[in-house]
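Subject: Dynein heavy chain 16

B.,
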Amino acid sequence: GPAGTGKTESTKDLAKALAKQCVVFNCSDSMDYIMVGKFFKGLASAGAWCCFDEFNRINIEVLSVIAQQLLQLFGAKDKGIGQIEFEGSNIKVLPTFCVFITMNPGYAGRTELPDNLKALFRSVAMMVPDYAMIGEIMLYSFGFKLGRELAQKMVVTFKLSSEQLSSQDHYDYGMRAVRSVINAAGLLKSATPDMDEQQLLLRALRDVNVPKFLKDDIPLFENIISDLFPGVERPKYEYGDLVSQISVVCKDPDLNLQPVQAFTDKVRHGLMLVGPTGGGKTSNYLVLQRSLSNLHDKGFYKVHTHIMNPKSITMGQLYGQFNEQTHEWTDGILAYIIRETVKDTSSEKHWILFDGPVDAIWIESMNTVLDDNKKLCLNSGQILTLTPHMTMMFEVEDLAVASPATVSRCGMVYMEPISLGLQPLIDSWLNSIPANIQKRAKIIERLKLLFDKLLQPCLTFLRKQCKEIVATGDNNLTQSLQRILNSYFAEYAETEFKRIPSEEIDNLQNMIDQLFIFSLIWSVMATCDSESREKFSNFYRNLFTTVTDCGFPQEDSVYNYFWNKEKKVFENWQIQYASFEVSSKYQYHEIMIPTNDSTRNIYMKKLLVSQGYHVMCPGPTGTGKSQNCYSLLTTQLGEEYQYIALTFSAQTSANQTQDTIDSKMDKRRKGIFGPPIGKKCIIFVDDLNMPKKETYGAQPPIELLRQFLDHQGWYNRRDLVFMRFQDIILLAAMGPPGGGRSNITARCTRHFNILAYPELERTIINQLFQTLVKHFFKKFDTTIKEAIPQLVESVIEVYYKVKNELLPTPSKSHYTFNMRDISKVFQGMCSATTNTKTCSEIPVLIRLWYHENMRVFHDRLTTDQDRQYLKEILQDFFQKFNITKEEVLTTQRIIFTDFLQGRELEPRIYAPVDDLDQFIDKMDYFQEEYNTDNTFVINGPRSSMKLVMFLDACEHIARIARIIRQPQGNALLFGVGGSGRQSLARMATFLSNYKLFQIEVIKNYNMRSWRDDIKKCLMMAGVENKSLTFLFVDTQIINEQMLEDINNILNSGDVTNIYQEKDMED
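Prediction pasted inline below.
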């Protein structure tokens, strides 16, 4: 039957009436038949009854085995055999042994029972009972005189509420809700026996229900109640010292807590705090905890909280699991905490807090904990009983995927940011800025005015008119604004060693408008894309000129200026990089050319990170997010900052992330970890939103990071203690959601300042590559130099055409083009500039341009039609350079290589192939050389090659060799089997003078051997400095994790946890 119809209670009651022992056990999906078999052995020998709660959560494979076991036991019982052989041991079967099953049909995470199991049981359907009657009996038993009348009123209240109020995931008007109202009324009755009973019930109804309603439903509920209880006063609440203590703890009366919560705690021991991020859920229970603890001598009690995020670990690590080889049991974090708290016999309270998304799987195992049994059932068959001093609390954003069975068992408190508003945030922030600034009444007044006049209109405009790259909440943006202001105020804060003269503060007072305006641009206005930015810029300029006259330049977008504190004027960002020169000591891929975008983004990041705030940069690929972050981390920050770079991908697990970070931390003192003392560590997470969502929409690696952001640490999985971290700052970058990336939870983004990267404009791209190409071609003739702007323009044109016309489809899923492709074309062109002879004439230059475009765009096209289309686009451009097609395409194929002079020659010259026949002969000669060279293959099968070198094969070899010779060039070769992918790659490796590394998948090849191979490979390249090609074939993939490791190598050049202690010493 459905939830809350008394299935378990009836079974227990029957057992009580017949004086039989009845064991209630909550089943979970990780139970196996061995464990259930053990369970049955004990029950049969003792002749006890057993009630399996939520039986259909067990996996279907296990259920059919259970059916076999029961058939055997029931068979013995029917025939009256005293002893049988069962699961490998001899047991006696007492005739009183009996099994009951309760289940809710058709909820999330449930299975259908197999027929051979149904046949062994008699089914009884449970219906929803008559609440009025139950209520009447219970009210009488609590000593109410008007039991019948009150019970009916209460039932009508619930009926009307369920019909008239909005339907939310966390509303529940079932039997359990009725019971908690009656229990509350009972408590009140025993506290004040003489009070009017109508008032008592009214108060109980309000206490239990009001906290969970949305803001808009409260007046409706009040109306229902006043209709049913005409003329009954609302009783006054008496909370004693608690309320005064709460305001003392807040030191900040604007937190506006609903003091109803102190009471919900007493009715049920499961409590859910629900609501969107920023509604004050976390601060709420902290304040309550402290207030209660401070009053522990006045009839309240001390409270200890234990916090964890259930999604940042696996299910087994939460509850506990069997070791698969040895079948040993290891406790999970929750089991450990409950064990510790059960031992505590004093009257202090323990709150166990689950701060993380609820889903049907892990929460169901809590069901027996939450109802009247108060037992936690572990898979080892062990049952822990909770003490009356323990409360389970869940803190969640929504209950979209929780099953009704859970919702009906918990008390709900709903909190939403709307009822808070932004004012409390502003007020409490004004109390937290440095004291010497607070003393200036003028500054504070001015700030209040600015917040008042500018903040709300901007937020409204943002919501109505703009498109954000990542969704944000108003309270998050307000806090971002305050963080930027804090970063500016930080230098005025006084410490024991530093006094600030009052002239400085006068100075600040004069700049306050400008700082505020600048901060608002980079917090509230920094989250939207490029089109919205133009609209916003005009709107904002008109808005703030009405409030303040701050000398802001009239032309151009507001995003282009920054406030120069020394000169006290707004300046364009270009001033910061006006003197930039490309230095010749860098290679092509190391050069970074500053633009307005990169300059201002790096400036903002530096400002925030150096104050210890977390920053997140969303934006499309190829806008330089990672590039800017790396340049900030490696060159712009002082000595005291270290960094760890992580790159997330779809397969990243939370455990892997946790290990990576843990391995880089030092222990500071007991339970506290961090970078070496005096340093700060920045964790740079690239592609933050790549991890794939689970069935119920959570992303464990992100939940792990959120646990750190909310509670400054996480649990050590080995010894289950909480580890706190200090001096760690997160810097994150991510692409826009879509295409394998997902939306991440708002409870994570709210901790970051968000700097969105809009798409680069064409003018900027043009200017970037012109600077770059001119630098490489600076030794060439003027005719060549004059052609450069046209070259750059044409490559960009080709890129936009290809990107808009050749779109990815399922059969061409790799047709994804981004900024990196433009950069690759120029990288190829610039690599031909080592020798001025090669490109001394325009036709040769255009030939090179044609070849590079062909390599970058043409090589990934799969159909002849697409290839033809691309060639036509390219050949249309020849007229722009006043050259005919014949002058450029002198040979049948255009091939550029750098190995024609021989393998050993240095420096290698990248030059076109003029005579194709000669080229093929040369290749045959190289093949003989390959077959005689035996030092070439380092690891993997050695075999001689007997290829016929025909034109296509030679062209392929040249293509692969071109990729190998580029720094950071990695190739993905795909085609049907037998098209020569492996042999040609080997040949190209040989010609580039690299060594070849392959893995050999033999019978017992496992992940450990894979890790060893990878380690060998990385050691050779990194330590011995040898050039290697690692050739990996799709038939060698045994485990998805392999691709994950390769992905990590391509992104960060390293694999997590691959080196042990002794490798580090080597």
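DSSP finds 41 helices and 30 strands in the chain.

T.
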